[in-house]
Design brief:
This protein is globular. Strands 2-5-1-6 form a four-stranded antiparallel β-sheet. It has a two-stranded antiparallel ribbon with strand order 3-4. It is α+β, with helices and mostly antiparallel strands. It has one domain: Alpha-Beta Plaits. 27% of the residues lie in helices and 35% in strands.
Length: 113
């Protein structure tokens, strides 16, 4: 079963400079482990939500917006596409992600036919 794992950092959690410096290495180790297991298909870090653009077509007119669909916090900062046997495995994989210690991770299963 394929899942999208959305990563939401929690800005209210204060991290030291040392803790922040450790994040890329910890995430890199998680990526390597999950790719070795064959459960991580792809993923990446996203630009800040302030860099987003929205597109709507209403009555044949294209409307372009700057910024995210919603200004609500938290904003997605990254994603991973997973291929897991079931929800239990996807939850186990997500719980090992380093950002789970100071943020929130959301799993969404693909609507596969």
């Amino acid at each position: 079963m394929r899942y999208l794992l959305f990563i939401y950092p929690d800005k209210s959690v204060e991290l030291t400079a040392e803790q922040r410096a450790e994040i890329p290495g910890a995430v890199g180790a998680w990526v390597s482990e999950m790719e070795d297991r064959g459960v991580r298909l792809t993923g990446d870090v996203l630009q800040p939500a302030s860099e987003a653009a929205t597109v709507r077509v209403r009555h044949g007119e294209v409307q372009i917006g700057r910024g995210p669909v919603s200004e609500a916090e938290p904003q997605i900062s990254g994603f991973n596409m997973l291929d897991c046997a079931d929800l239990d495995e996807a939850l186990e994989v997500a719980a090992k992600h380093p950002v789970a210690a100071f943020g929130t991770l959301e799993l969404r299963r693909f609507a596969e036919a």
